[in-house]
Amino acid sequence: MRHPTVYILECADSLYYTGSTTNLGQRMIQHESGVVPGFTSQRLPIRLMYTIECQTIAEAAAIEKQIKRWSHQKKKALIEGRIDLLKALAECRNETHFRRKL
User: How far apart are CA 94 and CA 63, in angstroms?
Assistant: First the structure.
């Protein structure tokens, strides 16, 4: 059995798509041919930007869910391996956060 993989694609319109699969090669063919209906099929061509191999499907699902909630900027930092920027972007910046720091 193949290990589950979480992946990030960059679409033609520069938006990112995050998914997970146990067969990345097959999934890429599906995305590139447009047979996966929805987000990527309307934004071809796509380019594979990032992958992370996981031990379990549950782990892959949790990581995929987490990344999907991230901003474009934070996903880009992950893709570029900018851990320093990733940490800075992860800091809470809402009004209540700032009030507590005063």
Answer: 24
pTM beyond cutoff 0.85 = yes
Q: How far apart are the first and last CA of the chain?
A: 53
CA atoms 70, 71, 73, 76: torsion sign = positive
Say whether 97 sits in a helix, a strand or coil.
helix
Averaged confidence pLDDT in the chain: 90
Residue type present at position 38: G
Give the Cα separation of 7 and 49 in Å (integer): 8
Positive or negative torsion for Cα 54, 56, 60, 63: negative
Q: What six digits make up the tokens of 100?
A: 């507590």
